[in-house]
TrEMBL record:
Membrane spanning stretches: 12-31, 96-129, 199-216, 223-245, 284-302, 322-338, 350-367, 379-398
Coiled-coil spans in chain: none
InterPro entries for the chain: LA3751_2-like
Superkingdom of source: Bacteria
Alphabetized UniProt keyword annotations: Membrane, Transmembrane, Transmembrane helix
Name this polypeptide is given: Glycosyltransferase RgtA/B/C/D-like domain-containing protein
Amino acid sequence: MSFLDGKFHSKWTKLTFCFLFLLPLLYPFLLKPGEQLYSDHLGKFILGESVGRNGFLSGTLVLPSKSLDPEGNYCPTECIRIGEELISPFPAALGYVYAVFLPWSGIVGVYVAVAILILLSFLLLSILWDWDPIYLGVLVLASPFLVNGYFFPDVGISSFLFLWGSFLFLRSGPSSSLLRFVSAGFICASSAWFRIESIVFPLSFIFFLSIYNFPNIEERRKIIGYSLGFFVGLGLLLGIQYVLYGHPLGPRFSFNQPTMFLLPWKKWNIYVGLLIANPNRIGFFGYTPAFLIVLFFFIYYIFFKKNPFRRNEVLGISNRDLFVYSGLAAFLALVISAPNDGIIDFGSRYLHLSLPAFAGMFLILIENIGEKFRKIGKIVLFTILLYSVYVSFSYTQILGKYGRKTTKLNAIYLEQKPDLVVVQIRTYSQILGKYFFQTPSVWLMREGNIKNFFSKNSPEQFKKILFVQTKASILESLNESDPFLKNKYYESITQALGPDFKKVWSENKEDVLIFSMERK
């Protein structure tokens, strides 16, 4: 259906689409790129800067603290040792994207480019769903598709590649060339360079296409072409990662795999955090409860209304609907194998590529509500969606406030001008922000780490050292009037540095205790 000639020709519908398409371009102002350099985001920046400093020849991390910590025991960002190299668990391909933009546009260019890719993703999905404003509205306003894609550039790039490849396949005609289907599969496989779990979605799509459409000779040609392109792209990815990292699924898989192979009944905390919530994050259905109804409907629908094994006649199911079914099936597979992301992070990032499928299944649910309950059913569903719109708004606000908070930490670093920064929790290396490569930084978690590090690196080489201690480790014994009293971490620091170092500045913040030790 054409946007200009279809039933959605009204002025208000056009304005709605314009608003939804412009939202990604507003996010660089709502979540300013310069304020997002903390935690995982800082780790991706470090990877990108390292790729650039290595002349695009290696993803080995370039750390200012390397001479102080050659074995990487106290790496201030997430890192994995492979042989003699320290590498990031984040996708190397993402590091190359950062490295392209950083020299001429800084971190702003990365996020603006990703925002444009999200806008293009909206365009592709709108065409596939015949410019249905309900579909796009649910995806943009009532799901984390936009905020996840922008906030996590690897997610945004991966989803665009998957949707681009899927679009090429779904919009092909009877006369389309085999090369188009091969290209579609290869592009879908390329999304795994940025998010390894995206492999599951094309695999699930191929499975559903084969189950429902393989007997059709015309569809068989398309399926074989798409499968060929996908498996060639997948083989290239797995082969290169095996050569570089010794594992076909790469460093991120190695980083997460200890929890991936737990028995399902031992992963209850992971499932709860991934799907509902945990103390720090909201989960997939915690964000969009309506999608839980959609999931139950899908299970009923696929087994009782569209089950290919229960009838002999050819089922009239479009490839677009098969794309939807496969996305929800991939969702279930990913949940079962979920790594520790469910405990430590926002669940929908890991399950991001299933969001377009959930939005599509939502429309199928609306269409299948019985005539008797159609009006009340729609009212209930759209009322629940209003809650998710509120969550989208609130989540964006929370991220913006946290970003501004980290910028204030950057200012402390500039005021203190230390020769070394020591953080007790890696997350707080964010105090360096974009200045990370100017000053050595190390992660010293426990008192023993402090003793060991300074026994190998004489304190005499430093004039001033800035320490960032998490208050979570001293809450029980914390004396608000004097947070250094009975503070074992601080005591181990004074012992390791010796009497020549004195505390010259401190700030007792909400979650951290920051202080500078200066040599006389």
